[in-house]
Amino acid sequence: MSSSPLRTTLLATAALFLSSYAAFAGETIQLFDGKSLAGWKATTTAPEGTFKAVDGMLQIRGGKADHLFYVGADGKATFTNFDFKAKVKTYEKANSGIYFHTQYQEKSWPKLGFECQVNATHTDKKKTGGLYAVRDVMDIPAAPDNVWFEYHIRVEGKRIQIWIDGKQTVDFTQPEDWVPPKGMDGRRIGSGTFALQAHDPGCKVDYKDIVVERLP
Questions:
Q1: Of 60, 61, 73, 191, which is most buried with the most CB atoms under 10 A?
Q2: What percent of the chain has pLDDT over 90?
Q3: In this predicted model, what pLDDT tens digit does every residue of 73-120 receive, in sequence order?
Q4: What angle do CA 148, 136, 46 make, to 5 degrees?
């Protein structure tokens, strides 16, 4: 029995949609071009020079509860399931972090999203490789200061995984009855963008090779 023109059209449309979705889901995006802060937007409170592109690196120097958000070319960047990788180097007493599922705000700590901690020798006992206030790495960081290491974050559904130089430090699945940490109501799986943190005036950290792959 031959297909009706309508059925043929619907099947073709569905195939096109699925093909487009698959291509979109596998998209890999370079978040930092190594030359500029194109696609990024800083909090309005950030002192001049807090975030800079220098010699292929995204440098963070100083700040005070300041953040640099990836907004994309259209200012509307958002991610749900993803595989994120970046090279990171901390210096003595640096305190930074990589937020995901967050959104731009002009000042203060992001109200939405999770923070992946970046800190080897700051006084905060929560160290590099931890999911801040959710699954912390305490006292001993997963990577030391003054060396480049790979920060790998993967989110699929309700599951969050973190690896530092290929060694897993977090494997957390948000339960159905999840209650976020006190004062962090927005720390829930959802969707949103990424942000890099400049915690305090002593912060000194470099990022490079920042890429993310969208997952289905």
A1: 60
A2: 88
A3: 999 999 999 999 999 999 999 999 999 999 999 999 999 999 999 999
A4: 60
- The strand pair at 149-156 and 82-90 is best described as antiparallel
Q: Are 125 and 138 in contact (CB under 8 A)?
A: yes
Residue for token pair 């940490």: 181
Output the CA torsion sign for 15, 21, 23, 25: negative
pTM of the predicted model as reported, rounded to 2 decimal places:
0.89
Structural domains of the chain, with CATH = 31-214 (2.60.120.560)
Q: What is the DSSP string of 24-85?
A: HHT-EEES--SS--TTEEE-TTPPTTSEEEETTEEEEE--SSEEEEE--TTS---BSSEEEE
> What is the per-residue pLDDT across 40-75, written as a single tens digit (0 to 9) for each?
999 999 999 999 999 999 999 999 999 999 999 999
Contacts of 193 (CB under 8 A, 6+ apart): 69, 70, 71, 72, 77, 78, 79, 100, 101, 102, 103, 104
